[in-house]
Amino acid sequence: MRFLQVFLKDNWMENFGPDTFGLLNAEDYDDLHNPGTTQATVDLIAQVASPSSKLLELAIGTGRIALPLVHKGFDLTGIEGSMDMVAKLRAKPGGADIPVVIGDIADVDIEGTFDHAFLVFNTLFNLTSQEAQIRCFANTAKRLKPGGTFLIETFVPTFDGFTDHQRVSTKRLDMNSVWIEAATHDPIEQLFAFQRIRITQEGTKLVPLPMRYAYPPEIDLMARLAGLRLRDRWGGWDKSAFTADSKFHISVYEKPLGE
């Protein structure tokens, strides 16, 4: 238990800022972080948003979702904490034409209002405090037009494989490399601390990641505090029902008309 406390309170987590993820992951992000749901994600967002919608993507990253939506004709603006991730976006066809504001999705100031905002791939949990997550909802709600919507995707927390709030698992193993993920869990702060260890013939690379998880009811409360109400919730990008067995959820919050 002492190891858990020391690991979670170490300065690396406190210093994990909006640009840190990009510094650690931008170089090989597209190769290593594709969940296989890109087309389904784009299709559902295109259904939720009308063809004339002005879209805002929080944590636009390298443009995995943004570029296909722009190709569909949507007017899209992004927020991103990492210049390194934006550089990858800019290098892709059409990426240089997407307006992107650099800053923290919880606090960044951005001009204009939007019909629809979205934050996918568990990125809400990259904000490592409840306060920051609440600010993210409030900041987004301010940018939405009355009747506008905010779609988020997050995993449903699970503790499979954890013993004494710790877990180590092998992610890749072959003749020339081994990738290991070590994780600790702080149930008081609702924090997962991950360290991805990639050992290859070229050397060892450490890729840390802290995540502050929340269950759907807490996320709903964050939305309510921001003046948003839950409109839809699904257990998959195919609009399958959200059940007790769902591994993740897609939730759509709406800003009431007249606000």
Write up what this structure looks like.
The chain has 259 residues and is of the alpha/beta class. The protein has 2 domains: 179 residues, 3-Layer(aba) Sandwich (Rossmann fold), CATH 3.40.50; 53 residues, N-terminal domain of TfIIb, CATH 2.20.25.570. It contains 9 helices and 11 strands. Strand 7 and strand 8 form a beta hairpin. The longest helix is centred in the middle third of the chain and has 14 residues. The chain starts with a helix and ends in a 5-residue tail after the last strand. The N terminus is likely disordered.
Adjacency order of strands in the biggest sheet: 3-2-1-4-5-11-10
> What count of helical segments does DSSP give?
9
Strand content: 25-35%
What is the number of E strands? 11
Q: What's the CATH architecture of the largest domain?
A: 3-Layer(aba) Sandwich
- Give the C-level CATH assignment of the largest domain: Alpha Beta
| CATH topology-level name of the largest domain | Rossmann fold
Largest sheet: 7 strands, mixed
Portion of residues within helices: 25-40%
Order of helices and strands: HHHHHEHEHEEHEEEEEHEE
